[in-house]
Structure formats: C-alpha cells, structure tokens
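Predict the 3D structure for this chain.
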Amino acid sequence: RSVQQVRARAGTRMWNALNIYIPEEDAKRSTQVRSDKTYTLAKLATMRLVHCLDQYKDLSHMPLFMRQDLLRFIVSDTRNPLTLLTLKLLLDPNTTTLDLSYCPKVNFEMITQICDICPNIEVLILSSCMSLREDSIRLICERYAHSLVHLDVGRCLKGLVDKSKHAPLSDIGKLKRLLVLSLRALPHMNTALVNSIIPSCTSLRALNLYNCPGLMTSAMQAIAQHLPLLEVLDLGHTLVSDHDVDLITSGCPLLHQFSLNNCTALRGENHSISTFLSRCPNMKHLDLGMLTEIQDALCYQRLFAGSIQRGGSPHLQSLILPYSNILTEDIALLVQACPNLNVLDISFCSRLTDEAIRTIALSPLHASLRVLHLRGVTLSGEYLPLLGRRNGANPPLENLSLGNINEIDPRYVRDLIHAGLPDIRNLNMRMAGVGDEIFPDLVNNSPRLVSLSLSANPVTGLPLIDAVRQLSRLEELDLRNCKQVTADEVDRMRELNRKLSIYSSFTAPDRC
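Done. Predicted structure below.
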C-alpha cells in the first residue's frame, strides 16, 4: 500500500482512540479545527495529548502501540521536550518491543534511560536515528546481551568520521540470542567488521547488508561458514561477485528470501545466477533487479531450466526482474518452473515482446498472480485482455502496472478493463492513451479499486467526477499532466470523497 493509504487508515484509528485520553476542553478545541486529512487529525490529537501528559500519573491502561506512537511523536519533533518522567510514563519494565526509527533526538542519554526503564527489550529498531553514536551501540549490546533478538541500526552513525572507531559495532557479536540484524547503509561497514560480528551470531535468521559497498569475499565466506540457518539475506547495492554468490548459496541452503538488487559487479559467470533455485529449494522471494551488467543471454534460461530439472520451484512467490536481459523465450520456462508466483516484476525488460504476455496469461500464473509490473516494456498490448476475466474465471490480480509502456495500443487496454479485473486495487495506466470511454467498465468491473493512475491520459473532468462518485473505495488518484481536467473539477472530486488524495498539475501532492 502507498504511504498515504497506510497513514490515512492509521490516522483514523489514532484519532478515535486518542480522543479517549484527551481532557474534555482540549478535545472540544481539537474538534473545532478538524482537518479533512485523517493523519493530520491523529497528529493533532497526539499534540493535544502530549501537552496534557503532565496531568497523568499512569498510562498503563493505554495500549502499548499508542504509547509508543506518542513516544515516537515526541522524539521526532524537536519542539517537544523529552524528560525522564515522560519516558517512565510511556514505557514500563514489561516493554519488549520498541521502534524509534527516524527519530533525531535518540542519543546516548535517551538510550541510557531506556535501558534503565526497560530491561527486557527483545526487538529494538533504531534505523535512521542520525544522533545515534558508537557509545549507544556499545551500551545496547551490554545491557541486552541476553534478551535482544532483533536489532536494526541501519542508516545510523552518520557522524562517524574516524574509521578506526568501529569497535562498538563488533560488540554486536555479544548478542547471543540475536535472530534478526539490520546493518543497512552503515558508513564504513567493511569486511573486518562483518568478520568480527558474524562468527558470534550463529543463530541469525535474517541479515540486511544493503548498500554496504565495503564488503569483500572474506565477508561472504564468513556468512556462508557461520550462518547455515540464515533464511533472509539482503546484499543489494553491494559489490558482491559471482564467486561470492556461489559461496552464499552453497553455505546457506535454507535461504527463502534473497536480494541482489543493483549488484553491478555480477556478471552471471560460472553459472552463479543459474544455481539459485536448485541450491535453495525453499526460495520464496528472489530479487534480481537492476543486474544490468549480465550479458549472458542464456543466464535466465539456465536458471529456470535447472529448476525444472529438479522438480521446479513451487515455493517461489515473488520474482523481481526489472531492467534485466530476460528474453521472451525465458518466460515460457519461468511459468513452468514457478507455477505459484504471486508477484512478478518485469518492468523495463527491453527484450520482451507481446508473446511474453500471452505466455503468462495462458499459464497457471493467471490463477496465482496478484502483482504484475509491466512498466516501460515495449509491446502493443495485443494479449493484455487475456489477463482479465476469462471463461468465467476471475484473475486474482490486485496490483497491475501498465505505465509508460512503449508503443502500446489503447484499444487493448480498454479491452482489458472491459474483460474485468474484479479484485484489482492498484491500477497504473500512466501514458496508456485511454480516455473517458473506460470509466463505465472501470466502475462496473473493478469496484475494489483503491489507487488509480491516469497520468498523462486524455480524460476529461465530468466523466471522471462521476467515476469518483461511484468508486467509493478510491483513496489515491494521479491526474498529473491530464490537461483536460480543470482545478475546479479536481476540487469537486475532493468534495465528493474526503479521504481521496489527488495528485494533479494544479497543486502539490496531498500530504496525508
């Protein structure tokens, strides 16, 4: 779901829940300035409650998630003072999960207070806390050595200048119960650091090293040697080589989620890519996007053919291949090897043709695919209608992206909408050339639509207003570069659907 949708729904819940705890006079004042945007309502209610905290001696009756949301609000807003009394009010010794990601005021003093108040933290998320320093990491590792099972310190330590000051990170090896570790985008994360952490964390099930370009082959050897139980690994935006990938897939056979997105050092040599599915039979999510340096035309053919020889990959649910060199002929092997795919992304795969869409539509994937991204491919769309309702069988597609397809014929997009996508929730038809004629079929055949992109299409205001009135679940509408829709018509749509966020050429995108 989009950020706007999640925030809007969370905002409604928070508004209704927080009002219970706001004194009557403050609640009345909040109601008088109510905004149409539900996230603003939740923020307003939160602000009111923050200003009233000194009136409370105990908030233990408030649900934990609400207390943590309040704490996040206070910590993320530099105007709100954070005192030890406030921390004790919002946290308690029984707190086991704490998420303070994206909070700029998280520092050593606050970490010290949290450690004193909450001695049994098991899940601690501190990603993108820019004020976090090495001494905080060392304290966390000392205090929670026997309780912490999930630690996320990704995108922290931005102020670290001296590369020699990485010793506190090696203290992560003291966390004996650690199952999930995220070191995403840490500055100066290198092979020596990984080698100092991994041998002591042999129980790890998930490891995130996304955007850590300093990793070399010896780091991959440590992972393969010491983490045989590893199930989730993200090496996106790193410089791993084909040999490194061979080491990982050989030493971590239980992998079911593996990301190599944008690993530009991979060349597909020595059959490194083609052995993924055969060496890791339980693979569920595989991200091979942006591997633009793979020039071997047979790479993906060997990947899927090898899987077929070993009985296929029935567990694979998500396959991400944008900007890859996959061929139309490889799609025929893909649908045989992975008959139960839920998510397939082949955006901007320049070597695909219309026949690839026909192969997908006439395969078992027609009954399993929930997400299909076709952005930026080059095809006429001749077989797009086959993706819709066919012979009384409703496709389970919930998210379909047809944006920026080169040389697409609008007739086939209209035929697809006419055929019916009854479960569709997110539909991207950017630059598809469709007009007002699609709205009757869209209303009748796609009643569950939540997000719709009509950017740069020749639609007009009045038919669109009528469609917005009937699509009661619509929460997000993209009308950028729709030159025949006026500002008054956009305002009219907002009046009809108060929860609708509209992106248009007249105003900045609504911020829920």
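Residues 1-12, 19-41, 160-165, 508-512 have pLDDT under 50 and may be disordered.
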